[in-house]
Amino acid sequence: MERFPGTRDVATATTYADDVFALIRRGAHRTTAEGQEVTLPASPGVRSNPGPQVPRRPKEVECPPELACDWLAAPYVQIDEDGDYGNHDLADRPRDQKIEYIVIHDTESTLPNMFKTVQDPTEASWHYSIRSTDGHVTQHVRTKDEAWHSGSQFVNARSIGVEHEGFLAHPGAWYTEQMYRSSARLVRFLAKKYGVPLDRQHIFGHDNVPAPTGDSIPEMHEDPGPFWDWQHYFDLLGAPLKATAGPAGDMVMILPDYATHKPRYTGCDGAGKRCQPHGSSAVRLHTQPADDAPLIQDPGRRPDGEESTEDVSDLGSRVSTGQTFAVADRRGEWTAIWFQGNKAWFKNPKDHPTAVGASGRMVTPKQGLDEIPVYGRALPEETAYPEGMEEESDSPLPYSLRAGQRYVTQSGVESSYVDRSTFSDIPQPVVLGREKYYEIQFGHRLAYVRANDVDLVHTSTGSAGTPEVKPGTTGR
To answer: Cα separation of 443 and 196, whole Å?
Structure first.
């Protein structure tokens, strides 16, 4: 069995064989993304022979024992006499900064090209690369250090970046089961090591990273895109995405059936050209409860007023599997959620639901506040900065959170800032503030609001009613 993965890597082949035998024992039924029904009857008595001993790995590697992991270092070097340097920062995480996020990327390039990129001090960096064909893992940056991978220094300081070889427009050719399984094993290992919650406000895509400032929104990335199978991924993480409340409550989790949910996309093989139908984790949003209603617009992503499109890379009017939102309205088989300050409608029929009931916490502006600012990072107050260090100025995003609106939060956030502008042999100090924030699911991307601006809304039942409102306090 170890011959079939197509790799000479002993650990990868052994893990593959163990996975196959485990699947044979329990059986399986699945509808593929192409719509094919596949059934494997359970054979509980099947057992595999013990695999060979896993060879020793480089001492720098931080991986679970069942994965084959290599080390290919990203350089930390000074580039010129002006002090420019690359391609990551030294840190002492989690001692100086808690690791709270794991960011899922795809490379939008082949792995050999990405290996060249990560070894170039003038380019970006990330912690891990995962090969498409067999899920082989290569580490580039120690997890204690900060890689430059997300487009937000605030998120970089709190996260681990995992790149997957592939192209978001061609998932069938690149998003392999071996890659999903290796990635989930790695992320589960890292989440346990650093106490990262297994939910979609802590395990998220590059396309969910909040832009640090309004000007940076159009530059943020779209990977791993609408074809990444988040439901299957969280099954592999051992944290299945499922309903936690009845269907008539105040919150919903986006959860379409990946295999049968096939929205129209364009641009996979040329601008405007329709993509081949494929299972998708994304659900499209409209301004009204009708299929022909205009799509929701994102004024930050397209400040020139261009409309959202069905392009595979256009996430301006999309939400994604596992993301949880506050219900704003219901009408027939349509559900509206609060999304970037507006009601956004999606089709959610009872016989083929695209969302399920959820429970938890939401935030709403404190009584007496007509609207509050929304931020792409949680920065300390001015008095937290040491003498001689210039304060990083607040920069609210070009959206509004108005009175009466609610957004789901799964954690409080401590404010912090690190000046990563200087090449140094030791980590730069982390500025910790007393200002508290909540991380919220504000749109397709995450965002932050000050705890002093909001009250918490607790909901735990599946019946529609009046949720309990409490003054805002932070904490997980």
So the answer is: 22
pLDDT of residue 474: 46
Could you tell me the CA-to-CA distances from 178 to 229, 261, 311 in Å, in that order?
Answer: 13, 23, 28
Measured CA to CA, the distance from residue 374 to residue 395 in angstroms comes to: 9
* Least confident residue range of 8-17, 52-61, 146-155, 438-447: 8-17
**Which residues are bridge partners to 286 per DSSP?**
295, 345
Helices 177-194 & 10-26, crossing angle to 10 degrees?
Answer: 100
CB 418 within 8 A of CB 429: yes
Whole-angstrom distance, CA of residue 223 vs CA of residue 166: 10
Asked if 198 and 239 count as a contact pair (C-beta separation under 8 A), the reply is yes
Looking at residue 311, the DSSP 8-state letter turns out to be B
User: 26-35 — which CB contacts under 8 Å span 24+ positions?
Assistant: 30/259, 31/259, 31/260, 32/259, 32/279, 33/171, 33/172, 33/227, 33/229, 33/258, 33/259, 33/278, 33/279, 34/172, 34/278, 35/259, 35/260
Above 90 in pLDDT, residue 421? no
Judge whether 359 and 287 are in contact, CB under 8 Å: no
Cα separation, 337 vs 344, whole angstroms = 5
pLDDT score, position 296: 97
DSSP three-state, residue 326:
strand
pLDDT of residue 49 exceeding 60, the answer is yes
Mean pLDDT of 105-128: 98
DSSP conformational letter for 34 = T
Q: What is the DSSP letter of 55?
A: P
Task: Give 323-348 pLDDT, tens digit per residue.
Answer: 999 999 999 999 999 999 999 999 99
Are the C-beta atoms of 149 and 103 separated by less than 8 Å?
A: yes
- Alpha-carbon distance 299 to 293, whole Å? 18
The predicted pLDDT at position 453 comes to 98
Calculate the alpha carbon distances from 311 to 91, 103, 299 in Å: 39, 23, 17
The pLDDT confidence band at residue 7, using thresholds 50, 70 and 90, is low
Which of these, 318, 329, 310, 308, lies nearest to 252 by C-alpha position? 329
